[in-house]
Design a protein that fits this description.
The protein is α/β, with parallel strands linked by helices. It folds into three domains: 70 residues, lambda repressor-like DNA-binding domains (434 Repressor (Amino-terminal Domain), Orthogonal Bundle), CATH 1.10.260.40; 127 residues, Response regulator (Rossmann fold, 3-Layer(aba) Sandwich), CATH 3.40.50.2300; 126 residues, 3-Layer(aba) Sandwich (Rossmann fold), CATH 3.40.50. It is built from 14 helices and twelve strands. The protein starts with a helix and ends in an 11-residue tail after the last strand.
Length: 349
């Protein structure tokens, strides 16, 4: 590969521009360092002519402020934290992977780096260290539990943060789909098809998202004058789900409602192993969709919410708060009930 003199000259100029400091730019343009700093940070009152001169110089010379200079100019670190629960690896990892991808891409596009903080129940020491040492400009909480320690800590600090999910405190910035309404619609779909005998397979009762999903399921049942045949909570392992199904299948349910996709996959595996056909022997629906449910044989009816959209929206909201832009306290993200073969009756097939 050959390079012309023009390419070499341009590369040399860009290297020189990268090596320059705010002080060098100020001296060349005949303005103060604080003026250049305010133009870079976008803060403070600067005359249009001066601002345009500085911005034009930056564009022409391909100047990119180093992170230290940019942070000093704006009093920011240009880091944003994402808080993930330690037990995310117990099956919820696909959601958190998609979530993290959405946040990282959003932060990167707007010039921020991502710092991941792992919390373990009431142990939020890693988050406390980041916040109190001012290592980040803001935080996204990805999952809430009852009496959430990370939420309580952030509420006691002055750092901007947003929550993925719904909380009762209207002062908290929260981004979520309406889980309760979505699960109500999902359950109504099943009930309106003539099903009256439902069982619930669910995970941790303390997870706020599970509480909201359960609320919607129960409201739909009560509206039809129906009670769940049985509820099975705190299902974590394959053994937990197997034991619950062994018990509830003796009740001859017409439909199994799974609180999330992870439990649903385990339930489908057990049903197949024990020669129950879906939807022939029993229908199955899930309160959260995933690629595994879309491609399962048969495909599973589920409540669909884009984790990427949810987290990208949360990331942009956090950065808008950090940058003093107006942000609504509650930002809804849409949902859809995806009707697939697992909830259809034999007659519909």
């Amino acid at each position: 590969m050959e390079y012309g003199m023009e390419d070499v000259r341009q590369g040399s100029e860009e290297l020189q521009a990268h090596a320059m400091t705010i002080a060098d730019i100020a001296e060349e343009l005949g303005v103060s360092k604080s003026t250049v700093s305010r133009v870079i940070s976008g803060k403070g009152r600067i005359g249009d002519e001066t601002r345009n001169r500085v911005q034009d110089w930056i564009r022409r010379h391909h100047y990119i402020p180093n992170s230290s200079a940019r942070a000093l100019a704006s009093n920011r670190t240009y880091n944003a934290a994402v808080v993930i629960p330690r037990d995310a690896d117990r099956g919820d990892m696909p959601f958190f992977q998609e979530c993290l991808t959405g946040l990282v891409e959003t932060f990167t596009e707007r010039g921020y780096d991502t710092v991941v903080s792992i919390v373990d129940g009431s142990d939020v020491s890693s988050l406390e260290r980041l916040v109190r040492h001012r290592k980040v400009d803001g935080v996204v909480l990805t999952r809430l539990v009852k009496d959430d320690a990370a939420l309580a800590f952030l509420q006691s600090e002055s750092l901007p943060f947003v929550v993925l999910g719904t909380v009762q405190d209207d002062s908290v910035y929260q981004i979520d789909s309406d889980q309760s309404a979505g699960c109500y619609d999902l359950t109504r779909l099943v009930l309106d098809s003539g099903v009256e005998r439902l069982v619930l397979l669910a995970g941790n009762r303390d997870h706020e998202v599970n509480r909201l999903r359960y609320e919607g399921i129960v409201q739909a049942c009560e509206g039809s004058g129906i009670k769940l045949l049985s509820e099975h909570w705190n299902l974590q392992t394959v053994q937990d789900v197997s034991a619950a199904l062994l018990q509830c299948m003796s009740q001859k349910p017409q439909c199994i409602v799974c609180i999330d996709d992870v439990i649903c996959i385990k339930a489908l595996s057990w049903l197949k192993k024990n020669e129950y056909s879906v939807p022939g022997s029993v229908r199955v629906v899930s309160c959260y969709d995933s690629e595994a449910l879309k491609t399962h044989v048969p495909p599973v009816t589920a409540l669909s919410v884009s984790a990427w959209d949810l987290c990208s929206t949360a990331g942009n909201a956090l950065l808008d708060i950090i940058e003093d832009r107006p942000v609504a306290k509650k930002i809804p993200v849409g949902f859809q009930v995806k009707i697939r073969e697992s909830s259809r009756s034999v007659r519909e097939k």
